[in-house]
Amino acid sequence: MILIRISALLLASALLTIGYAQLSSGHEHATGIVGERMAAMRTMGRELKAIVDMIAGSTPFDPGLADKHATALHDACHKIDLLFPAGSLDHVSHAKPAIWNDPEAFAAEVSRLHNASNALLKAAKSQE
Fold first, then answer.
1. Under 8 Å CB-to-CB from 80, ≥6 apart: which residues?
2. Cα dihedral: 6, 8, 9, 11 (round 10)
3. For the chain, which ranges sit under pLDDT 50?
4. Who has the most CB within 10 Å: 16, 19, 91, 96?
């Protein structure tokens, strides 16, 4: 469980860096790519919260559920880089303009997110 805790912290840090808090809140009427990325961010938030609740002890730790949540989180994380194409800045999503103004920095943060979600998934599957 120690690896799951460490991996969850790294993943939370990566999500915050790419602007999870701003991207996850928004307008329920978003459509197209904006709606897809907002849905992905909500999924990541929901799955990470479920894992953090188990780590914090507010819900019982269940290795099978930890694996399920880590898998769903991993799958959503690995779609992120496809959900921010050029020209998709929209006020509805509250996405930061820096995503498009500094694509190299965004790509580096997405890579960090991918690495963290891979580590969390591996830890969950090993149930450590």
1. 18, 37, 40, 110, 113
2. 120
3. 20-24
4. 19
DSSP characters for 60-87? ---HHHHHHHHHHHHHHHTTGGGS--TT
Instruction: Give the model's pLDDT for residue 75.
Output: 94
Is residue 56 classed as helix, strand or coil in its secondary structure?
Answer: helix
pLDDT of residue 68: 95
Long-range residue pairs from 96-104, CB within 8 A, at least 24 positions apart, any chain: 96/19, 96/22, 99/18, 99/19
Class of CATH domain 2-126: mainly alpha
How many whole angstroms separate alpha carbon 68 and alpha carbon 48? 11
With tokens 């329920």, the residue in question is 28
Alpha-carbon distance values, 95 to 17, 56, 87, 119, 127 (Å): 12, 30, 12, 26, 34
